[in-house]
Amino acid sequence: MKKFNFTISGNKYNVNIISQNANTLEVEVNGTKYSVEVEQQLKVSKTPTLVRSSVPTPTTKEKKIPKKLAGGYEVKSPLPGSIFKLLVNEGDVVKVGDKLLIMEAMKMENNILAEKEGTVVKINVKVGDTVLQNDVLAIIE
Fold first, then answer.
1. Which of 7, 42, 58, 124 is most buried, by the most CB atoms less than 10 A from its CB?
2. In a domain, 107, yes or no
3. N- to C-terminal Cα distance for the chain?
4. pTM confidence score
5. What's CA 60's distance to the chain center, in Å?
6. In this predicted model, what pLDDT tens digit does every residue of 82-119 receive, in sequence order?
7. What is the residue range of 94's domain?
8. DSSP-derived secondary structure for 14-33
9. 3-state secondary structure of 111
């Protein structure tokens, strides 16, 4: 039961809300019981409204992320993770089975090996980068 004290035009009223059913309230005003119908109940939100600043429009470079680079053999990430250590540089000659980089995934270090002989033309990642599965890590020609 909720109790309220009102003063209207200098007159004091002690109001007790006895019960509430949908839009009908049973109230007691200065000892007299009344049945009151509520037209609209004000709802107070307990959840704060989040206001986000406007998102900047991406530049043309950010809009076009190359999924596949032309030329050469693409060394792709076998699973999502982060680059732990680079073992080769651009221009290095590699053979099949040579370690190119070490990637940390699922709290384990994974060696990424060369599956083709050739020269490392491009390295698309640096230490600390996070990659997804099938992201191109390096290109060998």
1. 124
2. yes
3. 81
4. 0.49
5. 23
6. 999 999 999 999 999 999 999 999 889 999 999 999 99
7. 71-140
8. EEEEEEEETTEEEEEETTEE
9. strand
